Amino acid sequence: MSGLEQRIHDAVHGQTQPTVTVLSSLLAVEDELGYIPKDALEFVAGFSNATVNDVWAVASFYPNFRFEPPAEHAVEVCWGASCHVVGAMGVFKSVLEAAGLEAAGDTPDMRLTVRFNTCLGACSQAPVMSLDHHLAGRVTPESAAKKVASLLEQDGNGG
Ligand code: FES
Predict the structure, then answer these.
(1) How many CB atoms lie within 10 A of CB 8?
(2) Domain boundaries, the chain
(3) Are 94 and 144 in contact (CB under 8 A)?
(4) How far is the CA of 140 from the centre of ligand 1 (A)?
(5) How many of the other CB atoms lie within 10 Å of CB of 92?
(6) pLDDT tens across 68-86, in order?
(7) In this structure, which topology does domain 73-153 adopt according to CATH?
(8) Ordered DSSP codes for 49-83
(9) Residue 156's pLDDT band (boundaries 50, 70, 90)?
(10) What is the pTM of this model?
(11) What angle do CA 137, 113, 3 make, to 5 degrees?
């Protein structure tokens, strides 16, 4: 078994909740690896007595699953109502500019993924963003760009 197969196996078999479904298994893999490799679709199908097509139908329905390995760093900009009304659009534009991207997605060098989030759960501190899962509140377009730049200045050892 390769290291990747082992991690998929452990993630799927390590679920402790009472109801294990195709979706819960996919979530467990995504949590462990940060994406769903093709091997995991096959593994979850075998584990759940489902076909790969059934598993794919579930996986492709959820926009938050990725099917390619993640970039080194992840930045999310909240686009929920509370953040939107206090300037999330300006923050988002500024983050894209700092990342050198035209739209949400991965940078070509795979150093950064920029995503929207519909609520980062800290509405009272709007506008909110997250950098490698650490929240930052009351950001401005200027402070957001600085945060992205300093994230990218960190040396590349997995962040
Ligand atoms: S709407 Fe942005 S954190 Fe909730």
Answers:
(1) 26
(2) 3-61, 73-153
(3) yes
(4) 15
(5) 22
(6) 998 999 999 999 999 999 9
(7) Glutaredoxin (3.40.30)
(8) T--HHHHHHHHHH-TT--SSPPPSEEEEEE-SHHH
(9) low
(10) 0.74
(11) 120
Residue with CA nearest ligand 1 atom 1: 80
Question: Residue holding tokens 């991690």?
Answer: 7
Pocket test for ligand 1, best of 76, 82, 129 (most atoms within 8 A of CB): 82
Short-list 151, 150, 149, 129, CA closest to 138: 129
Q: Which residues pair with 115 in a beta bridge?
A: 76
Query: What pLDDT was estimated at residue 158?
Result: 45
Per-residue pLDDT band at 6 (split at 50, 70, 90): very high
Q: What are the b/e assignments for 51-78, b being 16+ CB within 10 Å?
A: eeeebbebbeeeeebbeeeebbbbbbbb
Assigned token pair, 10: 């452990």
Residue with tokens 């980062």: 120
Gap between the Cα atoms of 59 and 56, Å rounded: 5
Pocket of ligand 1 from Cβ distances under 6 Å: 78, 80-83, 119-123, 126, 128
